[in-house]
Amino acid sequence: MAAPEQTAVRAETPAPLAPTKSASRLDLRLAGLLGVLVLLCVVGYVTRPESFLTEANISTMLRLAAAIGVVSVGMTFVIISGGIDLSVGSIVALASVWATTLATQAYGPVVMVLCALLVGLACGMVNGVLISYGKIVPFIATLAMYASARGLAERISGRRTQVVSETGFTDFFRGDFLGVPILIWMLALVFAVGWVLLNRTTFGRRTFAVGGNAEAARLAGIDVKRHTALVYGIAGLCCGIAAIMVIARTTSGASTNGLFYELDAIAAVVIGGTLLSGGRGTLIGTLIGVLIFTVLNSIFTQNNLDTDIQNIAKGVIIVAAVLLQRTTSRRNADKT
Amino acid sequence: MAAPEQTAVRAETPAPLAPTKSASRLDLRLAGLLGVLVLLCVVGYVTRPESFLTEANISTMLRLAAAIGVVSVGMTFVIISGGIDLSVGSIVALASVWATTLATQAYGPVVMVLCALLVGLACGMVNGVLISYGKIVPFIATLAMYASARGLAERISGRRTQVVSETGFTDFFRGDFLGVPILIWMLALVFAVGWVLLNRTTFGRRTFAVGGNAEAARLAGIDVKRHTALVYGIAGLCCGIAAIMVIARTTSGASTNGLFYELDAIAAVVIGGTLLSGGRGTLIGTLIGVLIFTVLNSIFTQNNLDTDIQNIAKGVIIVAAVLLQRTTSRRNADKT
Amino acid sequence: MRAISLVNQAAACEVSHQEEADLLLAMTGIGKSFPGVRALDGVDLVVEPGEVHCLLGQNGAGKSTLIKVLAGAHQPDEGEIRWQGEPVRLSSPVAALRLGVATMYQELDLVPGVSVAENIFLGHEPARFGFARKAAARTATAALMRRLGHPEIHPDREVGTLSAAGQQLVSMARALAHDARLIVMDEPTAALASDEVDNLFRIVAELTADGVAIVYISHRLEEIRRIGSRVTVIKDGRTVATGLPADTPTAELVDLMSGRKVETVFPHRDETTVDPTTEVLRVEGLSRRGEFADVGFTVHAGEIVGIAGLVGAGRSEILETIAGARRPDKGTVTVDGKRLRPGSVGAAVRAGVGLAPEERKSQALLLDLPLAHNVTLASLPAYSTAGYLDRAREHRDAKATLERLELRPADPRRLVGTFSGGNQQKAVVARWLVHGCRVLLLDEPTRGVDVGARAELYRLIRELAASGVAVVLVSSEVPEVLGLADRVLVLREGHVVADRPADDLTEAAVLDCVMEGHVMTGSAHALDPEEAI
Amino acid sequence: TSNEAPGSTNTAAVAGQTGENSAPGAPVTIGFSAPAADHGWMAAMTKNARAQAEQFSEVTFKATEGTNDVNQQIAQVETLINEAVDVLVILPFDGKALTAVGKQAMDAGIPVINVDRVFDTALAYRTWIGGDNYRMGVNAGNYIGQQMKAKNIANPVIGEVAGIDSLPLTQQRSKGFADALAGHGFKVGPRVSAQFTPESGEQQTANLLQGAPKLDALWNHDDDQGIGVLAAIDSASRSEFIMVGGAGSKNMMDLIKADSGVVKATVLYSPSMASSAIALARLLGQSKGLGDLAEHEVPASITTYSAVVTKENVDQYMDVGFDS
Ligand SMILES: Nc1ncnc2c1ncn2[C@@H]1O[C@H](COP(=O)(O)OP(=O)(O)OP(=O)(O)O)[C@@H](O)[C@H]1O
Ligand SMILES: Nc1ncnc2c1ncn2[C@@H]1O[C@H](COP(=O)(O)OP(=O)(O)OP(=O)(O)O)[C@@H](O)[C@H]1O
Ligand SMILES: [Mg+2]
Ligand SMILES: [Mg+2]
């Protein structure tokens, strides 16, 4: 969208022999972002030295970050591929509701998990097919899903919060493994798998190509439509995983789950340095983006700040973070 | 986002067979859109023949459409210029609160109106300056405003709904002129002024240029930064006008006003055929887009549909409208 | 129309020894329509192994469309394609690539955000179980780049940071990576300087020696003379001649392409229109760190000053700085005796400076807007009272200007994106003509423009100068600079190394001056002046 | 596909099944407008209203389904006025914002029953029925205060998980809570505000618990978000405090009855008021009074009582417990 920057003239002498590594500028951005995160942690520690950097609080923050983190992984793929997904929150709601109906719960935990994943994947694929084969712009197609999926979730649940009585499910997902909560393991795993998929497989590299120049990708023989559909499928699957996490955390499924996830996820991805116009981005940046918002929230709550002050501060901090991040990366870039 | 279209090769025989009129494809889209609107009206009439197309109901629908319609006018400018504004709802809230504090009300209706307009304009200009001179991408800059403005509205109002006791204000804005409610006049006026500004002035022409190719606009001597700032200022001003309308309708100002206006406005603009990537769009399309959503709502209400069904149907109808609109315009294009 | 001669002696000699008379590719009666346009209307193309088959035609004749059909990117409405005698259906780009047809498209078809190696192997990445084997791709890329004579382009480098020439090399490497039997090159030299062109031709020669066939598209006839085996001419979507020898006289080729007589490709200088008493543009001590330093010159009314130099010498940057699009570190620009505010395009435009930038699509045109809106973009204040546009006058003036430029079709309501390259370039010039500018800065005005349209542009530039405008012309084609300009500046690595009247210079002299001591100069074969007609 | 067991009767509270007034009267069309039924309590309100209307054969029920956009709700009420219903039952998203349209209806001769969130002027409604948010907070505060006294805790840390902070009802509840605690010489400690949803309840409580290593009591405004609050408490393995709920969901009452966890009580804010509102609307439409009162007319204002439900009296209130 920031057309002025993007269309800036780029030309280059054939002369410079030093190969500019493709990642270096990105690395600097990430360093700036990490700086913002560390700064926030310092603020948290200074204001609440007794409780902020405790193991318990870190574990709490990470568990809070888990669901939105997983959704943001999927969102990163979508945005890198040049799209946008407004429906993630609604898909989380639908998957969480569908996986916790009495009927589903009766089949036991495995079926509940499969149900959430399948519902997420299916919704994502519907988005993908509408966008790639139906040629509906992503904003509109996922806006439609945004309305429909939540409506369906309300319909299925009768707008009741469905409590999970299936203890096998809650025991497992609310439990620990090697002293670390399962939710945090899941978050780590999704990030790791996402990272490998994005950076180490042909699928991931093609995602960059589709987002960077879809026509070039098509001419190079990539099935852009199928690829686009799959990317939204991945985003949907991530919503399914997030739904499992939300069910585990709240021991219930409700059509009100996942409210505002779309804004939170997009904000985390964009703060993380992924271009909204596609073709460029990192999952590490997204992870840091998610953590920044989580830490911010924790600081606010622990310091007993009013919601109104929280909101005002949030806006100011977003702007400050972006500006700070840019200044650091520019200063360093000048040095090299 | 739809990169394939943009990168498609465009060249032309010196001896073309049929000179394609520039606007014709857009006109066809608009015709398709109008078809959708008419179709919805027919559905409304068939299901509720006794009440749907009555004068009272049409007036109700138009007054409901007024605030979001005005916001959508500003949003159309922003999107055509290649940006996005997520903060419109929050700005409406802030302006409505600021204009209805006891202190403001004490100065009388004129000051209240000016206050709403100024607050809207100021917020818009802050957005604009952050985006153009601060070089923060529109999504992030307006996301920050989205959080901050609502926070500030909560702070100012102490989260209380502020009742307007200034009867001069309510009497005027809730009144009629020549038998038509003032709110509808205002909507018509804003649309007319917006249309002239967009299609008949240098400002509008430059807006298309900045959104279509910011670098080309810059090299042609247009001050792209100042222009961008002004466009967001206009969007803010529209929010101020919408705030006045909301105050008139609710006879109060509250920090909860304008919830989800950003999504509704963007949806109306995009359904109306304006490209999210900028450079192309019409205000007529936006108006029809707003009306489609309003009529939809009225049909749902009058037919006593459950919210969940409403949501599901809304999604389906959005997709259907886009597909329908495309098929009609393609079929007609083939004929010529 | 002249008779079509399918069998050609000269070409036959060059066909590689193993597959004597066997045809590699035969496309017959290919037709393709787009909404409202019949782009191809029965094109025939026959390619033998090991030949360089040149496609000629005006802008919009259908060359790129034809090769997109061949590449599987467009589906033809009618016609037959035979590959080594077998009928084939090229349903997708993959099908064509499998067959052995690799294509370098006219529009750079690279992904800017990813690395050189990934661009080259996009769609056919070396992979194991879906995991990309980056090391393998890197090694192969490095080898390809060495083969192309540019080992300094690192496989990990982001393609978006390369110059146009560098990107063209990556495209080339990608075509080579496919091990193709037929490589299609659509205007590969449009963005290349002469030494890079030599390098490209060396590789073409290597390929044809291996029996690979090349389909070569270019608007530069002298290139066709140097490497072409046979020529096919396309006009309005039809083949009008095929199997012509590469040394067919220029007049004859131009005649076939345009259906009318164009005397010369490059202009000959007439008597000068310079008014030495009126200095319009004065540039003094202009510098930008890392781009150019201490550039100074003056241009008088009616004078055309040409700037020659290698790609990357900083010519575009100088023009952009004069136009206010870049802020100089030092130095001043004076127009009609008034100093311009540095770094403000608006101030420059108001003072009458117009820039026709290098990349017309990304820097000059609003492809989705009508021609009239594009043409008046810089003069909006003149067409409005208190901001309200006088659209009737705007339309009238635009139309008059378009007719004066013989821009076809001169319909101001038509979207710019639907015009051919040459006509788009005229639209850019029309913008400044409408504005009534004092100084016109032209950056590569004839890139990608066909011979017929070129001649018209030259005439137009001359006319402008004659009306008292000061023109600065940047071009990579030395004969063009020499033929048009009254005075020539030669730029090397951001410094002006020569400033002389054009009459004192020959092409060889300019090239010598341009090349001398340049890092990249591997083989300094200058274009032979004889070849350039 | 819901958790509701088939044939379950206590999902909706209904009134007016006995006495003289239960006999069918003249036909009445009742228009109903409420905010979006996006959480348990609000969903129960809508459902109760519908269920109550179905009890009366002569009542035609026109519900416009909810929205949290006041502008939309105004349009919905206007639509109902245009349709000339006999009585309007309005639960405004924001009482002050809908005052004008309420007045418009009254001016058009349609009596308005204002439910819960009160209009700004009595001119805008014929009868108001609703809970007392301030007293709800007071009752919660008093209960906690007494428990703390009983346990002899001198300086208790008392937490609060509020609902949507920008709603007046939340502010009233919090004020009542703070005032009552002050009466016992205590004050509110850590406070967070959630969104009336289980997910937000869990998130906010998780953070609250981290900020407060030790708690003695916790009041949660809403039993629907309480599901999340309890999940967070469970995750943090905390049990050193007592928790009091709000509104009175069936789920929470079951927990109180079982007495196995931190939940010891809940303060009613029962959605049964919606059922009563419909019953009153019918009476208004038929120009009848309330049977047990001496008045000829339906009273102008009825405030429901926010009883504290504890283990001792829970059975008595099970029938008004709503599905969260
Ligand atoms: N995707 C498309 N949609 C519509 N028309 C098209 C499309 N691509 C090409 N055309 C039309 O087909 C005709 C042939 O265009 P083409 O690009 O093949 O010309 P060309 O010979 O390559 O010209 P140039 O020398 O300028 O590159 C032109 O009239 C052009 O407008
Ligand atoms: N956007 C940019 N960022 C960094 N360096 C740039 C940029 N644009 C140009 N340069 C540098 O400026 C110098 C000259 O650029 P350029 O290639 O445009 O020269 P030129 O003489 O105009 O060549 P051409 O023949 O392509 O017009 C080069 O060293 C190039 O690397
Ligand atoms: Mg071409
Ligand atoms: Mg250049």
From TrEMBL, chains A, B:
Q: Which InterPro entries match?
A: ABC_transp_permease
Keyword Transmembrane helix in record: yes
Q: Which GO terms describe its molecular function?
A: transmembrane transporter activity
The residue ranges crossing the membrane are 30-48, 60-80, 136-153, 177-198, 229-247, 282-300
Membrane topology term reads: Multi-pass membrane protein
Give the UniProt subcellular location, in the record's own words.
Cell membrane
Does this entry carry the keyword Transmembrane? Answer: yes
Q: Which domain of life is it from?
A: Bacteria
- Which of UniProt's keywords are assigned here? Cell membrane, Membrane, Transmembrane, Transmembrane helix
Its cellular-component GO annotations read: plasma membrane
Q: Identify the stretch annotated as signal peptide in this record.
A: none
Coarse class of the protein's main subcellular location: membrane
Matching entries from PANTHER family are given as: ABC TRANSPORTER PERMEASE PROTEIN YPHD-RELATED-RELATED, RIBOSE IMPORT PERMEASE PROTEIN RBSC
* Protein name per the record: Sugar ABC transporter permease
Automatic annotation (TrEMBL), chain C:
Xref: Pfam families: ABC_tran (PF00005)
**Family matches, as SUPFAM superfamilies:** P-loop containing nucleoside triphosphate hydrolases (SSF52540)
Q: Which UniProt keywords apply?
A: ATP-binding, Cell membrane, Membrane, Nucleotide-binding, Repeat, Translocase, Transport
Main subcellular localization, coarse class?
Answer: membrane
GO MF, one annotated term: ATP hydrolysis activity
Origin: domain of life: Bacteria
| Signal peptide stretch | none
Q: How does it sit in the membrane?
A: Peripheral membrane protein
Domain (ABC transporter): residue spans on this chain: 25-261, 275-518
Please name the InterPro entries in this protein's record.
AAA+_ATPase, ABC_carbohydrate_import_ATPase, ABC_transporter-like_ATP-bd, ABC_transporter-like_CS, P-loop_NTPase
Mind telling me which SMART domains this protein's record contains? AAA
UniProt-annotated location(s): Cell membrane
**Known CDD domains for this protein?**
ABC_Carb_Monos_I, ABC_Carb_Monos_II
Under the cellular component aspect of Gene Ontology, which terms does the record hold? plasma membrane
UniProt-recorded name of the protein: Sugar ABC transporter ATP-binding protein
* Biological source species: Actinokineospora fastidiosa
| Classification lineage | Bacteria, Bacillati, Actinomycetota, Actinomycetes, Pseudonocardiales
